[in-house]
From TrEMBL:
This is HEAT repeat-containing protein 1. GO terms for molecular function: snoRNA binding. Involved in nucleolar processing of pre-18S ribosomal RNA. It comes from the Eukaryota. Its main location: nucleus.
Length: 736
């Protein structure tokens, strides 16, 4: 009833009763449309005429959306006419299609009036928009053949807004019904590729960018749903899509950039389902993709480029997953693009970008053969260092770690030499590239973590030669770099020893036999540097001249820094910092040996090699109070662990005595460190260490009356600890 009423009323607002209804395909631009003529009984003025048009269009739209009402009315009529359900559906579809045809005709008339008038009030524009809404409501009611026929008609309309609305309705309908379409209905949608291809080709240049973008979206939706089973149909549209990516985006306007991104999304959707079909066009679009990523990441602050960057990275993710076998010539450029600081800098604030980068690298690691991938990754190391970006360097080693994690035994045997060369080169980052990095320790730690992960994959037969090679490398004198170069190599090597000790524990302890003397030598050298007073500026030297005149003769002489020699001051400061780091790393490395020694590795000869250099480290507190935390929390426990590893009171005695002798020094900090070391020995070893008590009584008695409050309090704490372990009071021994 409503549909009939709408069909009966609309002709009154379309044209005179005497005017024939045009066929929908007759859309001659030269046709002169007569002004609207309404029955005098319906409207008596121009204002009422317009109002009637608007009300009628809204009325039709509202009632079309009440689908249940249609069925109730039709059910009532079918009961009256005794029609079956199939006839109901046929009647509905017939009415919907007739109304759609009438609405199209009505819209053409409205568009004609809109083009003939200035439309200052906006009436015709509003009416055109509202009449299109009727089609939006109808598209949910029309059968697939009827809907596709209507859309096909709209795509040929002269008005670009109508074509845009038609594609939007097409996209909505396809996304809503894609899971319920029959094969025949699916073919009807696929056949629309020809219409969309025609819009994208834009031969006459009349199509605007918004419509092209909408057409790309339509092809994208079709590809996601049907490309897998109809590869040839989608292959035909590929050259047209590539036309929109085969261009330089550097100087392109924003809309062209958006089309660039949309075209790559569309292209990647086709590639996802048809794969190698896109290979012939790869040289045209893939270099453009990498250039686009570089440009969009470098101009991330420009409006819209972030969204385009996401589109491009999502496309790259698809290409690295579906056609990695064809990307060999582009691998170095792909890796450089993904490691670009500009790209990585957007990732923390954009989870989608970070996910795409991760997926791209994962695809490369999983799908590209190692013979191609490893040279690309290893070759990227020098490149990322030139970028002066810590993030790029650490990201590279994260990717290498992913490759290492998936290595099998055959891969390790085949590529061990190339991995070894790469890691030896990378370990020199502190010596060669320190000035290019903001956080050297973080980068170095990432390098070491990657190397350790690789070492854990090796057999003992493979590990030992590699470890000895690294030890030899660390001890090689670097002539051009002087001592600082040697120190840098030793630092990173001893850091590696620390990490291997933490991971391999007792398995790694025998390897200390190859580097124990190297470790103790480093202890002596670094202690020697740190036993000098820290360098001071020339101003500080001038102000302290008088104080130096009254300095104690017992203090070791210190070298005076010449006035104006700021460079030597900086060099001395740098050398001191390096030696401080070297010392702490060596102590941690030795501690790893002692803690995990369960098989008697620290026998007498090795114990004697380590003892004196390690105990003498306590003396660094004489000249550098900033080392206090390191000595008390690292060196003291290390000495206690050395005693535990020795497992013999015959070896405990020289260690205990050497530590106690430090408690008679002039420096309170050194005395405190000696006490803390004794305390740690009792904590680690327990009651067995009570065998050393008689020897310590005289020293403890002296320290109980120390002039330094902290030393005195610590001494009482140590005595209390010994009493708790022994179960008896020491007062009678200490007061005798």
């Amino acid at each position: 009833m409503i549909l009939r009423m709408a069909r009966d009323l609309l002709p009154h607002v379309v044209e005179d009763a005497e005017t024939d209804t045009d066929e929908m395909e007759d859309d001659d631009d030269d046709v002169e449309y007569e002004r609207f003529v309404l029955d005098e009984r319906l409207a008596s003025s121009n204002g009422l005429c317009r109002q009637f048009n608007s009300i009628l269009v809204k009325f039709v739209t509202a009632h079309l959306r009440a689908r249940e009402l249609h069925r109730k009315i039709l059910s009532y009529e079918s009961e009256r006419d005794q029609a079956d359900e199939e006839e109901e559906v046929d009647v509905l579809q017939h009415n919907y299609l007739m109304l759609a045809q009438l609405v199209l005709l009505y819209f053409r008339r409205v568009a004609g009036e809109q083009s003939r008038h200035d439309d200052e009030s906006g009436f015709w524009t509003t009416l055109a928009s509202e009449s299109i809404e009727i089609l939006g409501a109808l598209q949910q009611l029309l059968s697939t053949p009827g809907f596709v026929a209507v859309i096909g008609e709209l795509l040929h309309h002269d008005n670009s807004l109508v074509r845009k609305k038609a594609m939007q309705l097409f996209n909505e309908r396809l996304q809503e019904e894609r899971d319920s379409l029959t094969s025949g209905e699916a073919l009807l949608f696929i056949d629309m590729l020809d219409e969309l291809d025609s819009i994208l080709q834009n031969v006459e240049g009349s199509e605007n960018s918004v419509n092209i973008q909408t057409a790309l979206l339509s092809v994208d939706i079709l590809a996601r749903n049907f490309a897998g089973g109809h590869s040839k149909r989608f292959q035909q549209v590929l050259p047209t899509i590539v036309k929109y990516v085969d261009q330089d985006v550097v100087n392109a306007p924003p809309m062209t950039l958006h089309l660039f991104g949309c075209a790559f999304v569309c292209l990647s959707s086709i590639c996802r389902h048809v794969g190698p079909v896109v290979f012939p066009l790869l040289p045209k679009f893939f270099p453009r993709l990498l250039n686009g990523i570089e440009y969009c990441s470098s101009t991330n602050g420009v409006s819209g480029t972030k969204a385009v960057l996401q589109c491009l990275l999502a496309a790259l993710e698809v290409f690295t997953d579906k056609i990695p076998q064809f990307l060999g010539p582009y691998l170095p450029a792909v890796v450089r693009a993904l490691l670009s600081p500009a790209v990585l800098s957007t990732a923390p604030s954009n989870a989608q970008v970070l996910m795409s980068i991760d997926c791209c690298f994962l695809n490369l690691c999983n799908h590209v053969e190692l013979r191609q991938l490893l040279p690309t990754l290893f070759g990227a190391y020098e490149h990322v260092l030139t970028l002066q970006s810590d993030t790029s360097v650490t990201r590279l080693f994260s990717v290498v770690a992913t490759v290492v994690n998936d290595l099998d035994l055959a891969g390790i045997r085949k590529h061990l030499p190339s991995f070894a060369r790469f890691f030896v080169t990378s370990l020199d980052v502190r010596r060669v590239h320190a000035s290019k990095l903001q956080d050297l320790d973080e980068v170095e730690d990432e390098v070491l973590e990657c190397l350790v992960q690789f070492i854990l994959k090796l057999s003992e037969k493979q590990l030992k030669p590699l470890f000895l090679k690294l030890a030899e490398w660390a001890q090689t004198h670097v002539g051009s770099s002087g001592k600082s170069g040697d120190i840098s190599r030793r630092i990173v090597f001893f850091k590696l020893v620390v990490k291997l000790s933490d991971r391999l524990r007792g398995i790694f302890v025998p390897y200390y036999a190859h580097v124990l003397e190297f470790l103790t030598s480093a202890l002596r050298e670094s202690r020697k540097v740190l036993m000098q007073k820290p360098p001071r500026s020339s101003e500080e030297s001038d102000s302290d001249d008088d104080d130096d005149f009254f300095a104690s003769e017992e203090e070791p002489p210190t070298k005076k820094v010449k006035l104006g020699s700021s460079t030597s001051i900086v060099d001395a400061k740098t050398e001191r910092e390096l030696n401080t780091l070297l010392l702490s790393t060596v102590v941690r490395a030795l501690d790893g040996c002692f803690v995990h020694d369960t098989d008697g590795f620290m026998e007498k000869d090795r114990f004697d090699v380590v003892l004196s250099p390690l105990v003498d480290v306590l003396d660094v507190l004489q000249y550098d109070s900033s080392m206090r935390e390191f000595v008390l929390e690292t060196v003291a426990p290390c000495l206690a662990n050395l005693a535990w590893a020795a497992k013999s009171d015959l070896l405990w005695k020289p260690l205990h005595y050497a530590v106690l002798m430090k408690s008679r020094g002039d420096n309170a900090s050194v005395r405190l460190a000696a006490l803390v070391t004794v305390e740690k020995c009792y904590q680690v070893i327990g009651d067995e260490f009570l065998a050393m008590l008689p020897e310590s009584i005289p020293f403890l008695a002296e320290l109980m009356e120390d002039t330094n409050d902290e030393v005195e309090k610590t001494c009482h704490r140590v005595i209390k600890q010994i009493e708790d372990i022994s179960g008896e009071s020491l007062d009678q021994y200490l007061t005798t």
